[in-house]
Amino acid sequence: MKTLRVGVVGLGSIARNRHLPELEQNPNTEITAVCDVVPSRSEEIAKEFNATAYTEYEELIEDPRIDAVIVSAANHLHAPVSIAALQAGKHVLCEKPMATTLEEADEMIAAQKASGKLLLIAHNQCFVPSHQKARKMIQNGELGKIFSFRTTFGHGGPEQWSIDGKNSWFFDKDKAYIGALGDLGVHKSHLIEFLLDEPIQEVAAFVDTLAKPYADVDDNAVAVLRTKSGIIGTLTASWSYVAEEDNSTIIYGEKGVIRLEENPEYSLVVEYHNGDRSNHSLGAIQTNDSDTQSNSGVVDAFASCVLDKNSNCPITAEKGRSALAVILAALDSNGTKKIISLAPEAVEKGE
Questions:
Q1: Does position 1 have pLDDT exceeding 80, yes or no?
Q2: What is the per-residue pLDDT across 79-88, written as a single tens digit (0 to 9) for each?
Q3: What are the residues whose beta carbons fall under 8 Å from the beta carbon of 319, sequence distance 6 or more?
Q4: Closest CA to 215 of 268, 261, 157, 147
Q5: Structural contact between residues 339 and 202, judged by C-beta atoms closer than 8 angstroms
Q6: pLDDT digits 0-9 by tens, 101-155
Q7: Is residue 349's pLDDT more than 50?
Q8: Which residues does the UniProt record annotate as the domain GFO/IDH/MocA-like oxidoreductase (predicted)?
Q9: In angstroms, how far is the first alpha carbon of the chain from the final one?
Q10: Residue among 298, 300, 262 at smallest CA distance from 282
Q11: In terms of pTM, does the model score above 0.85?
């Protein structure tokens, strides 16, 4: 294939502001078909991109012209749509969290292996330049032994950017299952495992709904995490940040500290133990503000993995499962008031 012909299922804000523009920008992808349960949305987007409109995802998947499917529907549809697409012989890029349970995630991975097609999960933070540089610095030993970390993702909530506002599926437990943890926290569990290049093995957390009276999912969570080698740190996910979005991460090592996406001018700052400081302007991280949308790297990576058979991809389904296991463990910890040890098979599958 020289061109990847793509169908997009779910035409909310993520598809409109990320996936569709990135598909249009990529010279090797074509928006062939789109699908949404709201007919007017499907027809509007189809007309804009000269694509075929569907209202039933099964019909889109059966379209013989389509090589790949992007799943950007509500969380509860991630597994069934992805599995159906894989069984139909399509490559799949699924939004995060990849599923609502580990059983669903395992079914998705099994379908992927049986199909021989690719299943990737849209974790975009590993493509952020500052995060990629930090990973290399850690791997090269520039910080020495890593002791701890702190990672945060918080903003005012999906109603500020979702196409359905306060009526969005994000706040409905039957459709979302997970709130801020699934929307934001899973990005950070994936990021920490990417930066440190090892899985998270233990989780303790407090999770609550504090800011959204119309939500029956979590809107604030703080978790303490321990990695396989014993590095400890915190992960915060929140829909209650009423000022600026916070999408920052700090890595603490024996030779210095890396501060990521914390300084508005420098996306990566290194503070060394001897007092030296290194500032790096590597471009702003993606946010949900319309004026900062450019290219998350997810669609480009998906197209490259399919068309070029690029096997070096940090957003595999196994990595997505590992990130999901962490946030589900956080929910479990909050409910049981216990430290949750991830099952050995969950950790190993994330490696």
A1: no
A2: 999 999 999 9
A3: 121, 123, 190, 193, 194, 350
A4: 157
A5: yes
A6: 999 999 999 999 999 999 999 999 999 999 999 999 999 999 999 999 999 999 9
A7: no
A8: 131-259
A9: 30
A10: 262
A11: yes
**C-alpha dist (Å) from residue 10 to 4, 39, 95, 99, 247:** 19, 11, 10, 15, 25
Beta-bridged to residue 33, according to DSSP, are 7, 52
Determine the residue type at 45.
Answer: I
C-alpha separations of 51 from 5, 47, 63, 65, 299 in Å: 11, 6, 12, 11, 18
Here the tokens at position 223 are 């978790």
* Triad 161, 163, 164: Cα angle to 5°: 110
Q: Is the dihedral of CA 88, 7, 291, 170 positive or negative?
A: negative
Q: How far apart are CA 67 and CA 117, in angstroms?
A: 10
The pLDDT tens digits for 45-57 are: 999 999 999 999 9
Report d(CA 103, CA 36) in Å as an integer.
26
Distance CA 44, CA 68 (A): 21
Residue found under tokens 């050995």 = 344
Q: How high is the pLDDT of residue 285? A: 77
State whether the Cα torsion 332-333-334-335 is positive or negative. Answer: positive
